[in-house]
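Limitations
The structure tokens in this dataset are predictions for the assembled complex, not deposited experimental models. Users should treat interface geometry with appropriate caution, especially where small molecules or nucleic acid strands are included. An illustrative entry is reproduced here so readers can see what is and is not provided.
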Amino acid sequence: MQTSWVPGADQSGHSVHHLPYGSFTSPRNSEPRLGVRIGDRVLDLCDNAEDLAPEGPLRAALRRPNLQGLLPLGRESWDELRTSLQRFLTDPAKAHDLVDVSQVSLHAAFEPADYVDYYASEHHATNLGRLFRPDSAPLMPNWKHLPVGYHGRAGTLVPSGVNIKRPSGQRRTPDGEIVFGPSARLDIEAEMGFVVGAPTALGDTASVDSFADHVFGLCLVNDWSARDIQAWEYQPLGPYLGKSFATSYGAWITPLAALEAAKTEAPEQDPRPLPYLTEKDRYSYDIELAVTLNGTTVSRPNYRDMYWTPAQMLAHMTVNGASLRPGDFYASGTISGPERSQVGAFIELTWGGKEPMKLDDGTERTFLKDGDIVSITATARGAAGTTLELAEVTAGVLPAD
Amino acid sequence: MQTSWVPGADQSGHSVHHLPYGSFTSPRNSEPRLGVRIGDRVLDLCDNAEDLAPEGPLRAALRRPNLQGLLPLGRESWDELRTSLQRFLTDPAKAHDLVDVSQVSLHAAFEPADYVDYYASEHHATNLGRLFRPDSAPLMPNWKHLPVGYHGRAGTLVPSGVNIKRPSGQRRTPDGEIVFGPSARLDIEAEMGFVVGAPTALGDTASVDSFADHVFGLCLVNDWSARDIQAWEYQPLGPYLGKSFATSYGAWITPLAALEAAKTEAPEQDPRPLPYLTEKDRYSYDIELAVTLNGTTVSRPNYRDMYWTPAQMLAHMTVNGASLRPGDFYASGTISGPERSQVGAFIELTWGGKEPMKLDDGTERTFLKDGDIVSITATARGAAGTTLELAEVTAGVLPAD
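Predicted assembly:
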């Protein structure tokens, strides 16, 4: 294990084997800068650009306010910077006073280009099929042949910490009446999001084996969902206003390179997918999530249970020639395991609102009340026996107007 | 009628009562600039910024390579610039040599933020319902209560002139086999697209009566659609790869102000929509489209037949608090009238590929062949008895890899 000069870093979820990237302001800098979290501190990449990178595009990228300069440079530059950061943070000669993470405000870590949301958990898709279409087979015939996905609204992706106003919209009452008002079934979806770095040209594809060449890193996602709005609007063109009011993401992006030790086998697929979805080296990530509502941990999904891998989702997204841009973002869809205690959405956890959750404060919940605070956290194995703590996604629910 | 010093402009579809905006390069400028089309010429807004706008944000906006500087400034600035352009182009003292439109290359007129595609034609939705779901009611129960829409891929919006590679993907054969290959049912959708200028904050709404405050202008759209990919993938989360490979738009954006004389009554709605979708002043636009395939005009849809108006689509998009960004783009969905000769997609025109179209060259078509060229054009009434010609959307089909 490498030893950092940052006090407490080695034993934390943010050792030199993690090094997630974010955009921050602090009492020292009022304009957002790119930083790396180490222990309970933040290394300012702008201030240290000369030490960290040779003259050229990589050094220039460190002086940008977020990841947008680094993303298009590709895997070789990302790895070069990671090595340089680890050397810097373990070299006692470089020790200096870093800003405390409690003193910083986090901003958009990247500029979202397009946002795609998948539906990659067999358990979640099966549960939602049963709840939304009780009279049909829960999985559509296409589900095991391709990773089902759709485009979401990139403009309403917000970093953790931005509170979310309850959306209003149309819904149909059980009597068949069409009414307008604040959503009465506001839900969460605990997901994993992937930040695309290296772009492709229109007409090109990114193969299933090129995942690590194109994807820079990942973060937790809360894909807020207004189930009553969604149920009424979604046929035949898919979810729209039931999702587009906000999607929250963890504001520190964990680089893929930090997750080598968390790689694990992905579920076997039957039927075998088409060649463009077949990986030479098929793997998923063992990442243990916790969903917490007002302080009570209500569920513990694990990412390794997802049927479709992030490499398959990337290959599918581009197999028709759709181009990739730095800042494209795709999410896994709700991460749900086989047990009720492992599902990533309240609609599953409470079985359509019929079986309330009990919270530690003695109250019960089906869907979210105004003032509720939702937090999604996660840990994974890092290099050299360390544990990574992924950046939490935390936000409160504000009342509708 | 105002008389321009640009030769031939007054009698053309591009008099001073039109003045669409585009981003162009020419033998004189190799970096894109913002320009206005007048007659067969292009006025360079960068070169003439001092004459056209006082010192400040408006003048700065004219020095940007596309509309992104102008869009956030809002209706008052847009109208101020239009008055100034009309004064300039009718003042003989300002006469000078303008670049010929045949000498320019057009670029992205704006930077697409989010892209939403609606489904606002009752005739189109009914036809597609019959073709895709022959055993159910053609319109879903929600269709007359809200403008059904979904997010598309903003990163693959391309201006007219960019040829489109036939996408490959999964489809299910009539025997139920899942195969991969180039789409065998490549289609078009003739639509109208609306460019959002003035933004809103997250949590705010843009009311149905604020349409002209937020929307800068419009253009023709060809929403290329791979029907075989779409039919297999679209349930339950909507169209994805069947659409995301490319969407073409007319590269000169016609400002809303040019279309005052084209305003017309919109179809009456039954049932009456909810208050947030009810306009004080309900109107549509009388815009006559022509769809041409390899030189044969195969259809003549009119925009006025659309059930949901652009104001209703804007209000719906934001009623849940989703924010607007300058460069957000939303399209109407296929423009189809009641007659077979007025439909905006080949799947309707050939009734699912069963009734081929005859072209003037003696060949027949159901869906597109490699090398085919599709052109969508349109005219509308302008001020003072003029006729506006909207910028065409023209592109050819390139073979799959």
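Some entries come with short summary sentences. For this one: The longest strand of chain B covers residues 387-398.
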